[in-house]
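Repro case for the chain-ordering regression, as requested:
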Amino acid sequence: MTNLTDLTVAEIRDGFRAGDFSAREVAEGFNANVAAAKALNAFIVETPEKALEAADAADKAKAAGETLGALAGVPIGMKDLFCTQGVQTTAASHMLEGFVPTYESTVSGKLWAAGAGMLGKLNLDQFAMGSSNETSYYGNVISPWRRGGGDNAALAPGGSSGGSSSAISARLCPAATGTDTGGSIRQPAAFTGISGIKPTYGRCSRWGIVAFASSLDQAGPMARTVRDNAILLEVMSGFDPKDSTSLDLAVPQWEANLSSDLKGKKVGIPKEYRPDGLNEEISAMWDRGIAWLKDAGAEVVEVSLPHTKYALPTYYIIAPAEASSNLARYDGVRYGQRDLPDGAGLQDMYAATRAAGFGPEVKRRIMIGTYVLSAGFYDAYYTQAQKVRALIARDFEQAFEKCDLLLTPTAPSASFALGEKQADPLAMYLNDVFTVPASLAGLPAMAVPGGLDSAGLPIGLQIIGKALDEQTVLNAALAIEERSGFTARPDKWW
Amino acid sequence: MSIDLQTVKKIASLSRISVTDAEAEAMVPELNNILGWVEQLGEVDVTGVQPMTAVIPNHQRLRDDVINDGDVRDKVLANAPQAEHGFFAVPKVIE
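-- result from build under test --
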């Protein structure tokens, strides 16, 4: 019999509808995988009862001949950055330990309304700040992948959506939510050989997602196939009056319109993404990606994004600035932890609470943000960064006059060992060099696996599209998926 | 420009994060590295460029000025570290 936990979202959806198996069987299978994978530390909270509850509801609806939701019978993982009513939501911080929301985030609510069930809350970098999942208060997430040749070093699943990427590639869930501020869906997807899409800024409501940098934060799906991403993104997207930057646009039928025929499409290759010293295997994978898209009928043109090298420093002003403002809410008064030293006044309580509740990387970013926004430095840092950001967005606009999409690497390397880059924050930040520019411009961008490197680790490709053109992004990713023949999966050791 | 121990302590104070002297000292080179790196933005010619305010053109929506939320005091207080008599409770404040 088919192993139900090897199925994709589309296969589970269709098989459940066809009566090949019950939703309960699927939920039980994934619950068992989750329970047996503690070594990966992918979940902060497991909710097997929620998965079963949704499954039973789906089975009952089907038996009664009722209309089934788009995700009826499909259990998923929920990044622990989405507020879930009645289930602890921590953003992987000590600050929010024990916080049980009395409301549901818009995106998670849409997924449950479509029939999906929750397997649990997935670990992440604390407040989504990190690229390796080493900043979680609840411990590192371990990638299910290992280098070949008996090297058992624990590898990073990427970040910040590392619980999501690890769990999907280990078959603990067929799909999960992620959020992406500077690459937090795409880089972990690339590290673990799965796909993930960050839609156009404003497609998915931010309401009920713990805020990091509001002008950049976007939710998106992560799954093993392009089709599964299209299915989930359709459910997650849509106008929400509770988010002032939500786009009031109809949600396209991305799944129905999937097509890997790229005839008439022009693919731009940004020359600035191939700096001297780019990892040779990453570079070779990029060349293969170019060949695959040509094979799919696309024409390839070179384009220039001249301000690319300034994207990361721009991001590391804007994101911490917004974080310092957003995280001011953690004051020990309304929710979360409180640290009240003996005899302390209100100000001392704030400072003690925040010292105890935030991890080192979060403190570092709050302090950088506070500095760049402080009197006397605001214009030199923050205003300058917002101007450079406008130039970065203009680079993309000009490139898209010559092409319909861009193809680039997703990350500058394959996954690295935990601890390898922890000592130097700057080296860690460089992981996002290829993902941050699209974030700054609010553009849809997707990671799709391309193959394995010489150490046996996945490396991926990134497709960046025009604003609101997720369809072309998905279609190009599908063309790569069909040609790469990527079926590798980690050998089970956990 | 580089920042010194005093500046780090001032930023920590503005951020409402208490730091020990040892923590503050460790942050001096860390923050200097990062700030030194972002300073390369100064070399970009931004003459005539407006700072970005929205990545995707959008307009601010208006809604009718009516009460559409509220009456959820217990929910609002449910996660408070300390709530008393229907209020958030904080240490005594004497200015």
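Ordering looks correct now. The first helix of chain A runs from residue 9 to 18.
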